[in-house]
Specification:
By secondary structure, the protein is mainly beta. It is built from 7 helices and 19 strands. The chain is globular, with a radius of gyration of 25 Å.
């Protein structure tokens, strides 16, 4: 254990040195004229004979066409990106209202906001480590508490707004070192990683609460015990269309902590994920249609309470370790409007399925499916229309031992993302939740939402 701590300490120290040295080295290189990195200083005569360097004229800031609200910072943002340093600052605001049904419609609304700061350091551009990258993400939330809204006003199993959480000041959420090898056929990641959005069961159509669906059931597969913690991830492309990946995580990690207080103390447990995927590209009249098909399994070592009728406290609770489950996920483009390989206009579909053991997991079976169309309306090439359905089927053992009214909950969601400017997206959202809470006979709920995403 002591050796492990020393290794992790050296890794962190090395990361810090790379940050300082790489940033300094990259900015120095970026200030040089093209082609002068390995040349001798020019004499006065040589300088006089050389033509003046042509510097491209920078476009004036235009809020309607700028990629970011704050623009290019007078060219500094582009210079930093050329040097291998990229920033992404995003603010997302959501308003949810329970229009009908659920538990209560009086004051049945919730507003919340979150902000994310992401920093990418391309170690290759910094002339440090070819194929290397350091990633850092900090985030914070403000406004209401979506969990109270969903529990007290809706009574649903899933949050109607996956991106809204209890109000928290800004904190470091994720950080990692990524390394690509063998012409990008091998990739490994070390650090504070999150499996739910970046590495495991990544869905191109239903995988981002910032840009796509809002309800948790249509953003994640709830039978997969995703985790954000210190860990490692590796992905190997055996062929151009077949990959195998795996992740190992610290299962004891707590939210908004570094993870070092649990990863190297206490029980020696590891949460494991393994996935095999296919990435075919089907030929069509307008070019190739990309798809992704994922088959995976997970292992959770933590003891889980077994669903059991304790006869009013007469029987002692029981638990079991070694929980396992399985999942399938896919996304496939089925129609492309034109043959431009960079144009994303067209229709795509997705589907998910998950199974978890019903003696310790409330949701035993889960499935979801849906579709999206980018550029459906002429002249609105980047607008997106999405429709999805998800259903969670509660465990038979939970039904038999704990709650005899337990059944299933079904979520229907429709959204339309309007690209108002390159940096601003407005998304009206409608959700119908059938049998909210998964209890037989419970009321349905109709929820309306509005999401505003701004790239700063």
């Amino acid at each position: 254990m002591t050796e492990t701590r020393w290794v992790m300490g050296l890794l962190v120290t090395g990361f810090a040195c790379l940050l300082v040295f790489g940033a300094t080295n990259a900015l120095a290189d970026a200030r040089q004229e093209p082609g002068d990195q390995n040349s001798e200083p020019a004499t006065k005569v040589e300088r006089a004979e050389q033509p003046a360097a042509t510097i491209p004229a920078r476009k004036p800031y235009d809020p309607w066409t700028a990629k970011k609200l704050t623009g290019d910072w007078g060219g500094l943002r582009t210079d930093l990106e050329d040097a291998g340093i990229s920033f992404a600052l995003r603010s997302t605001t959501q308003l949810m209202t329970n229009m009908y049904g659920g538990l209560e419609t009086k004051n049945g609304h919730d507003s919340a906001a979150c902000y994310d700061l992401k920093i990418y350091l391309d170690l290759g551009k910094m002339n440090l480590i070819p194929g290397g990258e350091i990633y850092f993400q900090a985030k914070g939330t403000s406004g209401g508490d979506s969990s109270d809204f969903d529990k007290e006003k809706i009574g649903a199993l899933f949050k109607t707004n996956q991106d809204a959480k209890t109000e928290e000041p800004i904190y470091v959420d994720k950080w990692w070192w990524k390394q690509r090898l063998l012409d990008d056929r091998v990739k490994f990641v070390l650090g504070q990683i999150g499996t739910d959005k970046d590495f495991i069961d990544v869905n191109m159509v239903a995988g981002s609460e910032d840009k796509q669906f809002m309800n948790t059931a249509l953003v994640r597969n709830p039978t997969i015990p995703h985790k954000t913690a210190l860990g490692a991830f590796v992905n190997v492309w055996a062929t151009d269309w077949l990959y195998i990946c795996a992740a190992a995580m610290d299962p004891e990690a707590r939210d908004r902590r570094t993870g070092f207080d649990t990863a190297f103390h206490g029980e020696d447990r590891i949460r494991l994920f393994a996935e095999i995927g296919l990435a075919p590209k089907f030929e069509s009249a307008n070019g190739k249609l990309a798809g992704h098909y994922r088959f995976g399994s997970w292992y959770r070592p933590h003891p889980q309470s077994i669903f059991r009728d304790d006869l009013g406290g007469l029987l002692a609770p029981r638990s079991r370790s070694g929980d396992v489950g399985y999942y399938f996920g896919c996304d496939q483009m089925v129609w492309k409007e034109n043959d431009d390989p960079k144009d994303k206009q067209g229709a795509s579909v997705f589907a998910r399925y998950g199974f978890a053991r019903g003696d310790v997991n409330k949701i035993e079976h889960f499935w979801s499916c849906g579709a999206q169309y980018v550029g459906l309306i002429s002249g609105r090439d980047k607008d997106t229309l999405g429709l999805g359905i998800a259903q969670a089927i509660l465990s038979n053992q939970y039904h038999d031992e704990i709650h005899d009214r337990a059944d299933r909950e079904t979520v229907y969601e429709l959204y339309y993302s309007i690209q108002a400017t390159p940096w601003c997206v407005i998304s009206p959202d409608l959700q119908f939740i059938a049998n909210a809470g998964g209890d037989k006979g419970d009321r349905n709920a109709f929820v309306a939402g509005l999401r505003l995403r701004v790239e700063l």
